[in-house]
Specification:
heterodimer; A: 159 residues; mainly alpha; Potassium Channel Kv1.1, Chain A; B: 226 residues; alpha+beta; 2 domains; four-stranded antiparallel beta sheet; 5 helices; 13 strands; elongated; F-box-like_dom_sf (chain B); F-box domain-containing protein (chain B); F-box_dom (chain B); SCF_F-box_component (chain B)
Chain lengths: 159, 226
């Protein structure tokens, strides 16, 4: 078992087989730096619980194909990313810090799926992006590929 | 609302990881969100990563049919040319039918029309000119032909490939002697390949490596059962 500590001082015990999906922790264990509790100053307990839930579910991912659990895993992943933007970005930041490649991919794909068909106005509002382009710069980008701003799939709603 | 998660506060590499998952049409649109997104999306390294991701992700690959039939006296499918594109085009279907970008280019449609593709780019040659077309961003360029003599024009190996050493695309227009050539050139790992027939009417695969501009000739495989 490996002990992880969140930045709000909560400790979690995780099986080594699960936790080594994190390249960062795997390297720490291999280098003998994981003898006691591993402090994770960038991750709060709420996010760490989500990450551990993912790690535990994906513990035997290599075997999933053999045991026919692929569909189950796919369903879990779909449910897993069903969270708000704030939580999703927290998990992305944690996955990036812990270097968990599959989790990073899953969450970035989910973020991209939510943005894919949105209008520029909707994206700016959803992600609180301040437009710092001048009117001319913006028009130049639109004129460069006007077809990218048109189409029945483009969705102007914010949700 | 907590403010620490707003995307402008996310590190650039994380924003890029998300942008990498988007199709080209969305990226072209989101360039107008703000300056930093515009810079990220225009960055040559980002473009390279996006292409690499598209070419390794089978779900993003498309089979393109470039349709010429409305310009042809023969309204048969054999006049449609097939290309494949690794670019992430915004269609859910695996196969897509494309109209070529400039219709005048194909007015003199003939058997000499050659189509090949490489990394999502489509290379088209007709009897007098050449065009490089990127259907994902709907842009094309005409390639200067430098008044090549007609014989050169007819009996040359035309095609395009990506030279990974020079990190650039090269087109080939090499005279290969009086051999009849069939089919369309195929681009693979920096080489342009074509099936040709020599004077002794034996078939072979002719490959031109565009980095050192050397030819490799491989005897054509013998068909099973013949």
């Amino acid at each position: 078992m490996v002990k992880l500590k969140s930045n709000d001082d909560k400790e979690f015990e995780v099986e080594e087989a699960a936790v080594i999906q994190s390249e960062m922790i795997k390297n720490m264990i291999e280098d003998g730096c994981a003898t006691s509790v591993i402090p994770l100053p960038n991750i709060d307990s709420k996010t760490l619980i989500k990450v551990i839930e993912y790690l535990n579910k994906h513990i035997n991912m290599g075997k999933a194909a053999e045991t026919g659990e692929e569909d189950d895993l796919k369903e879990f992943d779909e449910q897993f990313v069903n969270m708000g933007w704030e939580e999703l970005f927290d998990v992305i930041m944690a996955a990036n810090y812990l270097n968990i490649h599959e989790l990073m991919e899953l969450c970035c794909q989910s973020a991209a799926d939510r943005l894919k068909n949105k209008s520029v106005r909707a994206v700016r509002e959803m992600l609180k992006i301040t437009n710092d382009l001048t009117e001319e710069e913006e028009q130049e980008i639109i004129n460069d590929a006007p077809w990218a701003f048109e189409g029945p799939e483009i969705d102007d709603t914010v949700n | 609302m907590a403010s620490h998660w707003k995307i402008p506060h996310l590190p650039d590499d994380i924003v890029e990881s998300i942008l990498l998952e988007l199709p080209v049409k969305s990226l072209l649109r989101f360039k107008s969100s703000c300056k930093s997104w515009c810079c990220s999306i225009n960055d040559p390294d980002f473009i390279k990563s996006h292409l690499h991701k598209s070419s390794t992700d089978i779900s993003r690959q498309k089979v393109l049919f470039v349709t010429f039939e409305k310009f042809s006296p023969f309204t048969i499918l054999s006049n449609d040319k097939i290309g494949s594109a690794e670019a992430s085009l915004t269609v859910d279907s695996k196969v897509m039918l494309l109209d070529p970008p400039i219709q005048g280019f194909l007015n003199d449609v003939s058997a000499n029309l050659k189509v090949s593709s490489c990394n999502g780019l489509v290379f088209i040659k007709n009897d007098t000119s050449m065009m490089l077309w990127n259907p994902a961003i709907q842009k094309y360029k005409l390639i200067p032909s430098y008044n090549m003599p007609l014989l050169f024009w007819t009996y040359s190996l035309f095609g395009i490939a990506y030279d990974s050493l020079a990190e650039d695309y090269k087109d080939s227009r090499v005279p290969v002697g009086f051999r009849s050539m069939y089919q369309h050139p195929v681009s693979l790992s920096g080489t342009v390949n074509l099936i040709a027939r020599g004077n002794d009417s034996e078939c072979f695969v002719m490959s031109l490596d565009l980095s050192d501009e050397k030819f490799i000739v491989t005897p054509a495989p013998i068909k099973d059962g013949s």
